[in-house]
């Protein structure tokens, strides 16, 4: 019999109540007792927590860790942030049916490489691991892994279509009646096996990565409304979750689709979780429309069970040249993104194409000059494009001129203009910059052409970052605690070199800390018991008899932590690529999964990733 006791902790139970000072006793993986001065056995491990917060392990409800778990099943980047349960299989893509390599098709690489900006070397390595061929066998495989945290899988709709129709068929024709019935059976089987729901996707810039499909979107986007309705009726009958993304530029289609949540129309509400309510820098109406739609869908008239996911911090993306998570939104950048990351010559051919250059400059400069509706919309922050298209919003991280790092691209562009007007007497900060300025063609007369010059000259050696959403802390706080949202759009395990959101839950705690312990209790509830109940999982609370998934946070370390200063690009040898990480120091003091201490005072347990800590969770 193993015992661990946390002494004198400021205990948050995950249900929203005020914290109390208490001990918590863990025995054989479960919470055995809660109270003051609990008696324990002589060999119990005692952990002093005076002044520290003790809470349930947190949930991350939007991840793509189904890939990472194959290569590093301990999921160390998740553990160190106090998260003990993750939902996988989001956005309609996953590995529930293995690698599905048939007839020369390679769906894992095709579906993930561009949608989630994951290097092919990682995806090919993962695909070699995926030797199962059914949703049940996948669960058996996950159970056999030495999981560091609990995993709860969604069934990915794109992979269901591929399993039934083949990849080529799933993007080129409608399913037959027999194929629809087969899809229905696959969804029903997965729900019986305990999958927490079905994921679909409708974002218009999610494209396949392999020839000859590079101009095709992922399979779920070729499904008609009747197919979605039919498959989701199965999900509804089991009381499971629909995870979705909206057709960003088609409000009518979004409303029609999301009415599937309605109890009035379909007799039973369908639990629906949608990506994402964001305060876009280019469009201030986006989050307002999301919240208005959610209010309507959850009204008594419609009777839905619907929320938007909310990102817990600024939506900061890192870009390598023209390659970033939203590049496919714009046709001009999409042409560059269709090529392999190492195909510099191919990108250079496109960059040097006069027809393409004209189209790029027209796109980049749209709404910048003259009197036009586009300029009015841009001025009002009602632009339909997510990327800001402004050098002033592009902050250099790395480039061949080190003194540019930490500054915006607007600054060297201004110096170039001064250097030109002064005929080389002023502007350039050093000889290397002057040499670069001499290479800029005289025909480059605006910032779009200056950017194109840099892309031709440096390609992916120009690494920059920008914030595309959630830049206003007051609106961010409003979104995180709005009754129509849940924090949790983190995309952990995806966009490896482009975002660093593993710390999303801790960011929510930090924001709530500014408003006192009552707000902290609310935020913990929204990160634990509320999403656990939504997905039907028996986790997320501290009470006698519950699983001992726990997290200890140092509130003082949390208070002084600056999340924007702990992001860095590191080589992750277990993945075989460079990846963004965000590793706050001292904030999470202890993480327990199933009664076992996985993270203690800045160090992982020696056997993390070698023996099982977490479990595969079935929906209730």
Strand content: 15-25%
Residue runs with pLDDT of under 50 for 5 or more positions = none
Rounded mean pLDDT score: 95
Helical region count?
A: 23
Structural class: alpha/beta
Beta-strand segment tally? 25
Global Rg: 25 Å
Can you put this structure into words, describing what you see?
This is Amidohydrolase family protein. The protein has 620 residues and is α/β, with parallel strands linked by helices. The chain contains 23 helices and 25 strands. Strands 1, 2, 3, 4, 5, 20, 23, 24 and 25 form a nine-stranded mixed beta sheet that branches. A six-stranded parallel beta sheet has the order 10-11-12-13-14-18, sandwiched between helices. The protein has a three-stranded parallel beta sheet with strand order 6-8-9, with no helix packed on it. A hairpin with a 2-residue loop joins strand 23 (588-593) and strand 24. Helix 20 packs antiparallel against helix 21. The longest helix is centred in the first third of the chain and has 17 residues, at 177-193. The two termini are 29 Å apart. 51% of the residues are buried. The model has no long low-confidence stretch (mean pLDDT 95).
